[in-house]
Amino acid sequence: MKAKDLLIPRFEVINNYPDCDKHKLAIGSIVTFEYYTDETKQWYNDNGQLKIYDAYYEGYPHLFRKLNWWEKRTKEQMPKKLKSLCSKDEPNFDIEKEEVFEILDWDMNGMMGFLNIEKSQVCDLEIFTPEYGYIPVD
Q: CA Rg, the chain, in Å?
């Protein structure tokens, strides 16, 4: 998958809600989106229904849990390169020195991408909060 596809927001259904049977969204289902329009600033999901992404899915955290880009993915869907994120408030932040890591293999149980298998160097996706973690790059 391309990096832009991995960064499309997704939500997991975590509780029953009215009309969930009608929308065929059982607990554990993943709500995905197909495209975003700049004109309306809205995401369109795979059921062909227009939902305002912020107001609808994020507005009901007792029904939907926003997934990190790497959650509920298969090894085949994971990227070959990651870029580390850091806060612009950090004194040593320099956008031109952002590191890009080449991933040799993925451990999907530990959510780690191996940089050097012999030395056990990894990018651990679960160690940081999303704003300080890693994002996929092409």
A: 17
